Amino acid sequence: MEFQRQLKRDRNHQRVEEQLSKRLTFAAGMPHTLIIEPGARCSLACPFCPQASDNFLLSRDFLKLDDFKKIVDYFEDSVDTILLFNWGEPLLNQSLPEMISYASEKKVHTLVHSNAIHLTEDLAKKIVKSGLSEFVASIDGASEESYQKYRKNGSFQHAFGNLQSLLRVKNEFGCPGPRIVWKFLVFKHNEHELERARLLAREAGVSIEFKFAVAPGEYESSLEEFNNKNFRDKFIKNYDLPCKQLWKAPVICPDGDVLPCCMVSNKKYVVGNLFRQEFREIWNNAQYQMLRAAIAGEIVEEGALYCRECMFGPNSVK
Ligand code: SF4
Ligand code: SF4
User: Fold this and answer.
1) Cα 22 to Cα 19, 27, 144, distances in angstroms
2) Rounded to an integer, what distance in angstroms lies between the CA atom of residue 112 and that of residue 119?
3) Residue pLDDT, tens place only, 112-171
4) pTM exceeds 0.90
């Protein structure tokens, strides 16, 4: 049974990659990755986060465990990876560990990106036991002062202390997973702390990744590797461009709305609803095909403009 399921997933994965290489607008394969929003809410207010702005126009509900299970069951033969985060803080959904456990039982890889503020000791134990594949903690700074300039309402001590607890629990349980990563967005106000962060990471025994953000004005780093100069080249180096999400990784909101990609934060770009329609109808509807055509450079219609103008879109490699 398990072998058969894996075989189907592998065949689907291969099919998706073939279609991607040809940029076909009709996607015969099913997605092999899902981005599922546990709940678009957060107690922090990072300046560039759409979820923290009044213009955010998607559902603020928490995803229900039963709905998550139905989604996993529906995609059982095609999906091998689920990203359990999108716009909000995933740990706020009380059912998150059970969701991860359910996906793990079906041999689906799961990834969580979190601010780690709500990662209590009890939750850390549940997360480690759930079989999560990867936990990425977003902590941009190595002191309270620099951290709070971007992660507003957060606390460096709190986030970093929780990350250390997660590492300790993982070691105590002797579990191979999850892979734990400290992600550090480099801005002007924290660029002097890279060495200190490296040291803290080494002492804690966690991998650290420094990432560049296309940050405007006062936030832009002065370091060559992390500033906005030649950002297209940096994007090309850091990402697989142009964007491939339309062929392999739709976003599913807690109310069932399907978004074509993780850049969308407005209901007007919803392409369908999984709780009211068959996914296969949505996957190749006119809107989806038009967006794929836009990425392939075929047409420029108003509804596809956001792909043409996106920094991950076709213009990113010109
Ligand atoms: S921690 Fe994440 S979800 Fe929360 S406001 Fe910041 S970027 Fe948004
Ligand atoms: S090009 Fe941008 S807007 Fe279009 S699907 Fe990709 S990430 Fe989304």
Assistant:
1) 5, 11, 48
2) 12
3) 999 999 999 999 999 999 999 999 999 999 999 999 999 999 999 999 999 999 999 999
4) yes
Q: How many whole angstroms from 58 Cα to the centroid of ligand 1?
A: 15
Distance, CA of 166 to CA of 294 (rounded, Å): 43
- Report the C-alpha gap between 84 and 39 in whole angstroms: 10
Among 81-85, 231-235, 284-288, the range scoring the smallest mean pLDDT is: 231-235
Distance CA 133, CA 125 (A): 14
Closest CA to 57 of 255, 245, 216: 255
Contacts for 92 with CB less than 8 Å, ≥ 6 apart: 38, 39, 41, 42, 43, 62, 118
Q: What is the mean pLDDT of residues 60-77?
A: 98
Task: Give ligand 1 pocket residues (Cβ under 6 A).
Answer: 42, 44-46, 49, 51-52, 88-89, 115
Instruction: Give the total residue count for the chain.
Output: 318
Counting ligands in written order, which one lies closest to the CA of residue 296?
2
